[in-house]
Amino acid sequence: PMDVLSVRGASVIMNCSAYCETSPKIEWKKDGTFLNLVSDDRRQLLPDGSLLINSVVHSKHNKPDEGYYQCVATVESLGTIVSRTAKLTVAGLPRFTSQPESSSVYKGNSAILNCEVNVDLAPFVRWEQDRQPVFLDDRVFKLPSGALIISNATDLDGGLYRCIIESGGTPKYSDEAELKILPDPEVPQNLMFVRQPSSLTKVSGQSAVFPCVAVGFPTPYVRWTRNEEELTTEGYERFLLLAGGSLEISDVTEEDVGTYTCIADNGNETIEAQAELTVQVPPEFLKRPANIYAHESMDIVFECEVTGKPTPTVKWVKNGDMVIPSDYFKIVKEHNLQVLGLVKSDEGFYQCIAENDVGNAQAGAQLIILDLAPATTGPLPSAPRDVVATLVSTRFIRLTWRTPVSDPQGDNLTYSIFYTKEGINRERIENTSRAGETQVTIQNLMPETVYVFRVVAQNKHGPGESSVPLKVATQPEVQLPGPAPNIRAYASSPTSVTVTWETPLSGNGEIQNYKLYYMEKGQDTEQDVDVGGLSYTINGLKKYTEYSFRVVAYNKHGPGVSTQDVVVRTLSDGKLLYSGSSIMLHWQPPPAGTHSGQITGYKIRYRKVSRKSDVTESIGGTQLFQLIEGLERGTEYSFRVAALTVNGTGPATDWISAETFESDLDETRVPEVPSSLHVRPLVTSIVVSWTPPENQNIVVRGYAIGYGIGSPHAQTIKVDYKQRYYTIENLDPSSHYVITLKAFNNVGEGIPLYESAVTRPHSDTSEVDLFVINAPYTPVPDPSPMMPPVGVQASILSHDTIRITWADNSLPKNQKITDARYYTVRWKTNIPANTKYKTANATTLSYLVTGLKPNTLYEFSVMVTKGRRSSTWSMTAHGTTFESVPTSPPKDVTVVSKEGKPRTIIVNWQPPSEANGKITGYIIYYSTDVNAEIHDWVIEPVVGNRLTHQIQELTLDTPYYFKIQARNSKGMGPMSEAVQFRTPKGKLPSSGSAGKGSRPVDVGPDYKPPLGGSNSPHGSPTSPLDSNMLLVIIVSVGVITIVIVVIVAVFCTRRTTSHQKKKRAACKSVNGSHKYKGNSKDVKPPDLWIHHERLELKPIDKSPDPNPIMTDTPIPRNSQDITPVDNSMDSNIHQRRNSYRGHESEDSMSTLAGRRGMRPKMMMPFDSQPPQQSVRNTPSTDTMPASSSQTCADHQDPESTTGSYLANAQEEDSAQNLPTAHVRPSHPLKSFAVPAVPPAASTYDPALPSTPLLTQQAPNHPVHSVKTASIGTLGRTRPPMPVVVPSAPDVQETTRMLEDSESNYEPDELTKEMAHLEGLMKDLNAITTA
């Protein structure tokens, strides 16, 4: 059947005839569905198989006959074939899109009378003059659109004209128009077109008419060119110059494609008009499928080759049903159909159906499965023996076997190997290539798949028995790395390029190294270099030359998938800036063979676009680029280049334009990310708008917009750098598109900005375009709409309120509203993408928008309405609300144990869903008592937006509870629900030795020694003391305190220099100030609390005994052991420690253990530490005192600095064994140690006295009592206070103090004092243990 155009009420026959020896059964499909013609009174099947449609039905809402028809022929025993698809079009109801209008024309000129109708009805149009039919000839003719052209007009052509549509039924008449014929004007009249040619798209074989009607005096003559070559119509049957100058091309072919120019000339002047002709070609077969005869298990291919324009799509049909590609039915070489492992049911008719926009065609062939020929009489071979797979790979298997028992020589036997996937009944066959061969390699298998093989031997009599089936599984695919993502290359100098990339997403095991390949553009030899990291700079390249780069990742299996090539050009010279007063030109030499002698240089001519007469010349060498300098900034210039030879100057290029920059710009790196991206989805389009990168000093050459459904990489559009919006057209409704925007320059593309949007459904009529208000129920607005408001501004007032202000140019200058106009404000956010606008009305020139989300970008626009008149929406203004405190806790909190470290756990979480701002940190609370007050929980701050954190040195086999809260610039959010985690069981590592692998425990500033109590958290037995024993303890403490005070007094009285006096005065003032302010529930401890049972002083020369329940606390021996903190270290500390401290935090003092009445072991001053974070310094040399703590003695007291040190989590043993104060860990969550690591090179004098426990604060840090920041204050919002970390005294000062101490004191005296103190301690130990 062929395509048919019909009119309403006519009868139509769709032809169809099929031939077969057995008469076929004919059926018809309309739009893919079989028609039931038995009970149809209008449509009937004719005896030859054609379809007759009587009295075609067609109305605006009922079009049952229009559509696509297909004839289907079936023979029961053979199969089914289908015809091409034929389109039945019914001409619509007669209607004019334009009608003739009265006009006048000079005698001898041409006139045109319009009568535009819909394309279907154009053939049914005829004309009347004064109610009499117009006869068409060479002078008077009708265009395909229906318009009438009268050339060389005479007086007889004057009159009343009308056109008529006769498409069956009542004719439809247009309005009448009068054509007046004017006498010659005698004076020249301007030449002008009354009808110009318009571009046409035609199907090959059709006729094309380019109308071209020009008028003027003298009467113009019209000629035509095609692709700028004169078109000769004389002697060409297919090209006809119609009267008046129109061009008709009959039976168009692809050779006729091109640009046609109509040139009208009347001797005085010339005018011209252009139009394009595009020719489309329906599908045609270059190779049709042929019938195939085959045996079962064979593989066959049906060939089909088509051509057409646009390129046709091909589908295959078997017995009328679409073939769906699978493992056994494959489309190969674009259009061919391959069927693997034939089975009997594959028999039938296969048709190749080709289709494009202008037609479709079909060609078919039959597949016949032959039965195997019966074996001739004679012995057949038995089954082959010992079938084994000798080589198994991922995609091939090699089989070997032994000859059958019946034929041990087997020289004349051939073998067929049948194989299939397990569970599939489709066997494929592979034959050995020569007689006697007993092995075969089966190719093109799937990895990690089980196949079943059997082997059959054949002799001259036929095939014998089959071997026992053998199951073999192919190997899994070797896991090679995928391509390295985000490969970028940029020229870092004229001779070097830096290439960067990221780790492959599918690494499939550890990446061992990368190979970077590079090649000069136009060369064919690639060079490579091995790279261990993720970037590399290649030096020694040529200046201003293009190179291509690619990267391949290697793992233990070998090389992975290569990246795409990236191309970059090295810089032309050492200049890194693009000056605003210069432009770089590049060109290519003239094609080889066109040089008239050797090129000696190039001549460049340039001029300002605004002043075409003022041309400047510049002559350069033979290089293919030139930097033109000394230009005006922000000015557009035109350039052209010509080659110079010894024989003269060659032809110049066309003028090309470029604009200088306003300022000097950098193009050594890619542009930064655009500062904003907004998307506005419509039904089939998305409006994208953006703002340029904030850094305006980097050259932006343009923007690349990527978009696609679910992925932004499907389509890419590049726009000019001046453009700020773009409409993406031809999208699908109700679809989720991802959009990316990147700025680019000659170095490459910058960082992308992502946005997503869901196009509106078809039914959504709201806001079809930005400037259309779709409100069918409102009165029709006046033809003059109001001016939209201008100067819309958004002023952010708070986290949920923005004030919108605007001006109205239709108001008087004082902007006073005196009439009944009102304004409509609308606003929305782009997150999520499909949010609807909200609107509100206002009668003033401002509006307060409330109830907005914090930290969210909104766009606002305003329109004005006055009575029945409305304006369009104004330009949009944007505003981002301020941040506010997070209103939801972190999500998905999980706790896992770290592998190989049972006392270390890893906490993971996700950010809060309502962050209300940029997250600046998190605080992890943990406790062994879920019901404890929150200020009794231990805290671990996390700086930045990290989502994981390690907590170390927890107690084994203990349940812990964890909560997390997020923090932004406005404060803390709510806490998450408590998550329980029990640490694993295991042997407690020795905490007495600070050897490699065991970590001296760091105690955060939140740690506070427990006060009072009798049960140790580690279960060490401390029997309750009666009141007498307590009295002895108190007396002992008193005695020791007196002894210490005496020693201090002796030291202080010996200070002689004025410097020493000042120090002593300062120390005394510190001693007497600042009473300890503790929590009312806590016992008030003295400044130094010694628990005799657990503390002993070791002699200086002895190394500490590794006690499993004690922790080494190395003490620095001299002033060099203490690293002064300079300003840079201060800043490091502030970066590393997130130091927040509330006003009340010093007064409220409580710990997890504090309420349980534990016995205190030792109090250390911790004011020097910023509260609320345990600090882990990474390098072992990086430990630094955060304050200088100094005794009143002349030398720096070693013990006093221990509070200023925090252990490194991975700290190595110190080079020397130092004396230690052994302290039993008392905190249930962390052991306690504050080691200071001396430099390896430092030496110390063992004769120097050591007073480990005489601790006083330095004068510049007058906080005397031990204070810790209360964790409880974190729950309330407090302004963060900076923590000032005082510096240690410089090295010169402490050295001087040491010298003083040596000159003023005898070591013997100090030794006696120490011995006396040690004796007292032993007495106390004896008392308490008794």
TrEMBL record:
Q: Which SMART domains match?
A: FN3, IG, IGc2
- Give the matching InterPro entries: FN3_dom, FN3_sf, Ig-like_dom, Ig-like_dom_sf, Ig-like_fold, Ig_I-set, Ig_sub, Ig_sub2
Q: What is its main location?
A: membrane
Give yes or no: UniProt keyword ATP-binding.
no
Q: Entry's PROSITE patterns?
A: FN3 (PS50853), IG_LIKE (PS50835)
Q: Which residues form the Fibronectin type-III domain?
A: 383-477, 483-573, 574-663, 673-763, 788-884, 889-986
Q: What keywords appear on the UniProt entry?
A: Disulfide bond, Glycoprotein, Immunoglobulin domain, Membrane, Repeat, Transmembrane, Transmembrane helix
User: Listed GO cellular component terms?
Assistant: membrane
Cell compartments where the protein resides: Membrane
Query: Coiled-coil ranges per the record?
Result: none
What GO terms describe the biological role, i.e. biological process, of this protein?
cell-cell adhesion
Membrane spanning segments where?
A: 1029-1053
What's the protein's topology in the membrane?
Single-pass type I membrane protein
Show the Gene3D superfamilies listed in the entry. Immunoglobulins
Region (Disordered), start-end ranges: 981-1022, 1063-1085, 1099-1131, 1160-1203
- Biased composition range(s): Polar residues: 1013-1022, 1116-1131, 1169-1203
Which residues belong to any copy of the Ig-like domain?
Answer: 1-89, 94-180, 185-278, 283-368
Domain of life of the source: Eukaryota
Family the UniProt entry places it in: Belongs to the immunoglobulin superfamily. DCC family.
Could you identify this protein by its name?
Neogenin 1
* Species annotation: Buteo japonicus
